[in-house]
Specification:
alpha/beta; four-stranded parallel sheet; 15 helices; 44% helix; globular; binds 1,3-dihydroxyacetonephosphate; binds iron/sulfur cluster
């Protein structure tokens, strides 16, 4: 039996669903019951009724699934797959900031640990950040964490001051304005889409700055047939599969998130076989972390 068939059979036996982020390996996305961006995965986790969820993505995504689906056994096939940006806003540091700034509302990008989420007022993803931030009174002092690039893009687009934490995604932060200029020179007809985790000077040169889920919709709806994609290259798999007549160019330095690639079919199979790598979180902390996520889901309906 092939590894894919073995996973399919075990999935049935375990009453499990497999959820995968758009940056995971092509074969992982292909075996998944649901693939999506952080917001889509969170929405599914909030309403799904599965005994077992195998979350293929980085650790904060598996933690979010557990927080939103506490009765399910949430398995994370590669426990060492973390998001370096999520580790840039440590819970203790955030608690200390809150103590010194009691009037400031704390918004955490979903790329944070469960412990950090339990310290904040509201969460957002790149798919709903504009909506969430726009819903706040303009005179409300806000600290946006941990991504200074996403936060900076929101400040600029919404003309809304916010204090920004000192974090970033190392993969998107490495993308330069020259990468976009050079790609445009090479493919002058192409529409340029980048992720809002890119620097403000990079998003300024793109036609659109969108979450991975919004990008997938936008390339489908856009009548153009050539696109330059300024984000992690894992997304190209679904773009090409869903739009066979269109051409997608990665940037020259092809940004790759090595943590997302740690989830392999072999690890999914092993995890399903012995129901290992379960995400276990302190129940009290989970209850606290659920509040800002649920507020986010409510505000972004
Ligand atoms: P999306 O929510 O747009 O998929 O982004 C998640 C992420 O980690 C981007 O680096
Ligand atoms: Fe984190 Fe960046 Fe990887 Fe996304 S691409 S999971 S933000 S390190």
């Amino acid at each position: 039996m092939s590894i894919v068939d073995e996973i399919k059979q075990l999935k049935k036996e375990r009453n499990a669903v497999i959820m995968a982020h758009n940056y995971t390996l092509p074969e992982v996305q292909d075996i998944a019951d649901f693939s999506g961006d952080s917001l889509e995965l969170a929405r599914i986790a909030a309403k799904i009724n599965a005994e077992v969820i195998v979350l293929c993505g980085v650790r904060f995504m598996a933690e979010t699934a557990k927080i939103l689906s506490p009765a399910a056994k949430v398995l994370h096939p590669a426990p060492d797959s973390g998001c370096p940006m999520a580790d840039m806003a440590e819970a203790g540091e955030v608690r200390a900031f809150r103590k010194e700034n009691p009037d400031t509302l704390l918004i955490a990008y979903v790329n944070t640990t469960a412990a950090t989420k339990s310290e904040v007022d509201l969460c957002c993803t790149s798919g709903n950040a504009e909506k969430i931030v726009s819903a706040l009174p303009k005179d409300q002092k806000v600290m946006f964490l941990p991504d200074a690039n996403l936060g900076g893009n929101l400040v600029k687009k919404l003309s809304r001051p916010m204090e920004l934490w000192h974090g970033c995604c190392p993969i998107h932060d490495r993308i330069t304005p020259e990468d976009i200029i050079n790609a445009r020179k090479e493919h002058p007809q192409a529409v340029v889409m980048v992720h809002p985790e890119c620097k403000v000077e990079v998003t300024a040169l793109a036609d659109h700055a969108l979450s991975t889920g919004a990008m997938l919709t936008a390339v489908k709806e856009n009548p153009a047939n050539e696109f330059i994609i300024g984000t992690e290259t894992g997304i190209l798999h679904r773009m090409r599969k869903e739009n066979p007549g269109k051409i997608f160019h990665p940037l020259a330095n092809a940004p790759v998130c090595s943590d997302m690639k740690k989830i392999t079919l072999e690890k999914i199979l092993a995890t399903l076989k012995d129901l290992s790598n379960e995400v276990v979180l302190d129940p009290e902390m989970m209850d606290k972390a659920r509040k800002p996520i649920e507020k986010m889901l409510e505000l972004s309906k």
